[in-house]
Design goal:
Layout (H helix, E strand, L loop, with lengths): L2 E4 L3 H15 L2 E4 L2 H10 L4 E5 L1 E2 L2 E2 L4 H5 L6 E6 L4 H9 L4 E4 L4 H19 L2 E4 L2 E4 L4 E4 L2 E3 L3 H12 L4 E3 H8 L10 H15 L5 E5 L3 E5 L2
Parallel strand pairs: 1-2, 1-3, 3-6, 6-7
Antiparallel strand pairs: 4-5, 8-9, 9-10, 10-11, 12-14, 13-14
């Protein structure tokens, strides 16, 4: 799952990025509306956390752009404004939730998870391939109903494969899922992560398989 943080306060932005990356997966941070629009133009995000007081305008101005995406991401608005009218305006303009500053990390993560749970209620939050199951909201992996622990970047790669099971997933797509805009990626990083992921699933007696497709990427199937 990819998360975008739109926040101009450097310290808060880094804190948000790290907290949300720990909870949900890869997370990117931008500091303006223009950077936010540029980010969503080149990557798909499942969760976007937006501050209202940005240097080039109100963060709510990004909501129409997000609503045009298919599927549209979950959105949580952050602000120091706690007037009921401000809250109502954010929700009326399409935000899924609204968190007033200051807030605790546990509150933001819980609210974001609740929003994602509602969002995926109709889409199907748990995906199954053979005896492998993946809970998109809780980022939980199971084989035959038994949970297995998967490190963060391998988990991001597995999620990208699960979401596109039965189809070839390009190497570039897996890089985008596992790494942020500012991360340095070694030339063989994806191959190394996939190799460890395949071994981990094999040791858990997973019947779903990840196969390399030469020159393109990888394919996850239940066959």
């Amino acid at each position: 799952m990819r998360v975008l943080v739109v926040e101009d306060d450097p310290q808060l932005g880094i804190w948000l990025r790290d907290a949300l990356a720990t909870a949900f997966g890869s997370s990117d941070i931008v500091t303006t509306l223009d950077e936010g629009r540029a980010a969503i133009a080149v990557r798909t995000f499942e969760l976007v956390v937006i501050d209202r007081g940005l240097p080039d305008g109100d963060g709510l101005a990004l909501l129409p752009d997000l609503r045009q995406q298919k599927p549209s991401p979950a959105t949580v608005v952050l602000t120091a404004l706690d007037d009921p009218a401000d809250i109502a305006r954010a929700l009326d303009e399409g935000a899924d939730d609204y968190v007033a500053k200051p807030f605790e990390p546990i509150e933001l993560v819980a609210r974001a998870r609740a929003v994602l749970r509602r969002l995926y209620l109709d889409r199907g939050a748990v995906v199954s391939i053979a005896n492998l199951s993946y809970d998109i909201v809780n980022r939980a992996v199971g084989v035959d109903g038994n949970p297995i622990v998967v490190p963060r970047r391998e988990l991001a790669i597995l999620e990208a494969l699960v979401r596109r099971s039965g189809r070839v997933v390009l190497r570039e797509t897996l890089e985008s899922a596992a790494y942020g805009f500012e991360d340095e990626i070694q030339s063989n990083a994806i191959e190394a992560h996939v190799s460890r992921l395949r071994r981990r699933l094999r040791e858990a007696n997973c019947k779903a398989t990840i196969r390399p497709v030469r020159g393109l990427g990888y394919l996850l199937s239940g066959e």
